[in-house]
Amino acid sequence: MKREIKKTQFIKGIGVTPAIIIGKAYLLDRGKIEAPARVIPEPQILQEVARFREAVEESKKQLRLAKEKLLHEDVAGPTYILDVHLLLLEDKNLIENTEKTIKQSWINAEWALKINLERVRKVFNNIDDEYLKSRKTDIDYIGERILRNLMGKDKETISQIKEEVIIVAHDLSPADTAQMAKDKVTAFVTDMGGKTSHTAIMARSLEIPAVVGSETATHHINTGDTLIVDGLTGVVVVNPSPEIIQEYKERQRARQKMERELFQYRDLPAETLDGYRVKVLANIELVEEIPSVLQHGAEGIGLYRTEYLYLNRKDLPSEEDHFQAYKKVVEATHPHSAVIRTLDIGGDKFMSHMDLAEEMNPAMGLRAVRFSLKEVDIFKVQLRAILRSSAYGKVKLMVPMISGATEIREVKKILTEVRLSLTAEGIPFDPQMEIGIMIEVPSAVTIADILAKEVDFFSVGTNDLIQYSLAIDRVNESVTHLYEPLHPAILRLVKEVVKAAHGAGIKVAMCGEMAGEPLYVPILLGLELDELSMNVLSIFRVKKILRAYTLRECKSLVNASLNLSTPEEIEELVYASLRIKFPEEFREKYNSRVAVQ
Q1: What is the set of domains in the chain, with CATH numbers?
Q2: Distances (CA, A) of 452 to 183, 341, 436, 448, 527
Q3: What would the DSSP string read from start to end of 576-595?
Q4: Per-residue model confidence as pLDDT tens digits over 56-65
Q5: Active site residues
Q6: What is the pLDDT of residues 111-145, one digit of tens each?
Q7: Contact (Cβ atoms closer than 8 angstroms) between residue 546 and residue 271
């Protein structure tokens, strides 16, 4: 009988771990749970609340076991993600409100949980910051875990898989990822997820090759299918031909060789062939990320996002909450500096007790420095903690979304008041602590020469600068193709910022996603940025590319780019240059925005 030859298919997703894996698919059947809706007789209400509490406790137990497994395997880095999920299981907004809904509405725990999960999701939907908005999936993971425990639905246990497979699932939680036995699960593919989702972060930390956000993988892949998972380009090849398998095996060998070579860049300076020195820093949001920062040879923290201190809680974080978090980061980073960004999110998006109006366009509403200047008491609490932490190492304060000189002058006035109060109380701090601003609003670029006289440094936040300059909503799938970091307008804006900063004798960094993309490194060098701050996993590659160029070459590339008309033309020019320097890594161009990460 003639063996059926299955048709080869190519599925495109988001690569999160730069490796190539070939193996057999294992389709994980995780159907969406439909929560039953029932009215509960009054005498059974307390029993229903107890059932809910038991499901929550069981969920905590499962997460603690997953955390213990990671610690036992000496993989401490990503355990903070499971800690976040454990904290969510203590969240009063979700747990206590669900119990209250059961008692007040006389409904079953599943239905009450579903109602309250939807309320929390709406809070995250209103957040403009793409990174923070993606944290909504953590709520979904916790909700599903509690629901399954309520309904007695056991998940297929990934840890019990007995043979080498590539897991294919609609979605996986970080706890699922933590349970993967690396000698059995060689890679995974999901329909859901993004590059900054916690599942993706876990995959990178555990070095499990993965492609997320494929949208339709579970519709096209069956258990037993042969798969090629390219975690670099985000391509999944289903039932490849022998020729395609051979081609990918060659790429696999080249990739493994390159990964071994990359580690040598950890302790090497980020310096061009002609001696131009650039600082390579890391972006973080949690203290637990510091070990990974140090392992990857970052020269400090270029962006510490402080928003997580405010999320998932009814009350405001105290000064001590702030101080303890900042102190840990500052001490762990010493002798390098840590740039702490003040709150970059609107108050109505996370503080349920604050009666602020719903906004039509939160991206341009009461957020970031605007919120801080409106709620000065809240702002002062954070500033006091940041100043106090400066006594334990080198701290720089960074203020987001400055659009004019008046805002930064107001911030400095408040900061002076806080300094005076700390001095009066005899609390130590660094009186020379630098203050800088994020350049992410077009008006700030236009008056960069004025703003440069007000501060000690600039940091270009390309995520928002690109969004605002090109009128692109980054989370609107209909226009994301227009989000072009190499748009001639963006390069000219960055050039103006650098010119104004250097003209005033201050340094300029870049902390947006653009800073960590290898494709953009020659251009950013040519624009003469002083510092690049990025995801730690980008550091080795950025250093490698940086050390292969001269500043003169990069300036020439920028000059040529500024004479071109479209992002596509500029990208082709830069890619051609990289292909000459790194023929093995850049020999083929799938989609360069993904392929060169």
Answers
A1: 9-28+157-240 (3.50.30.10), 42-151 (1.10.274.10), 268-595 (3.20.20.60)
A2: 54, 18, 9, 6, 17
A3: HHHHHH-TTTTSS-S-HHHH
A4: 998 888 888 8
A5: 198, 511
A6: 898 888 888 777 776 665 655 666 677 777 788 88
A7: yes
